[in-house]
Write a structure and sequence with these properties.
The chain folds into 2 domains: 8-57; 70-111, no CATH class. Helices cover 51% and strands 0% of the residues. The chain contains 5 helices and no strands. Helix 1 (8-21) packs across helix 3 and helix 2 packs across helix 3 (37-49). It is elongated and about 70 Å long.
Length: 111
Amino acid sequence: MPWKETCAVKERVRFIDEWERGDLSMVASCRKYGISRQTGYKWVHRYQQLGCCAHALTDLSRMPHNHPWATDQELVDLVIRARKRWECETLQPLTEQARYGRPTRGSCPLS
């Protein structure tokens, strides 16, 4: 028997259609589509909140909204400029001056 190819969004649209028609209860619909009730309610809620369209049923990005430990863009730009200007063995004094306001070891090539 060949594999049945399906698209996740199309399956979700079918699930929502059946739920809206009232053919099956939420429990029976979830069981039929092999999802938990929590997931079923999540798809229904998202479908209602984001406007009744298939776009509301696509997977959302899992990328974090912010990056608290990311390097400041100013420091990134400073290091890139230094790499273009000098071929330093180490850029540590430069980054320490940018981070602490003064070099902690040695001298900084930008001072």
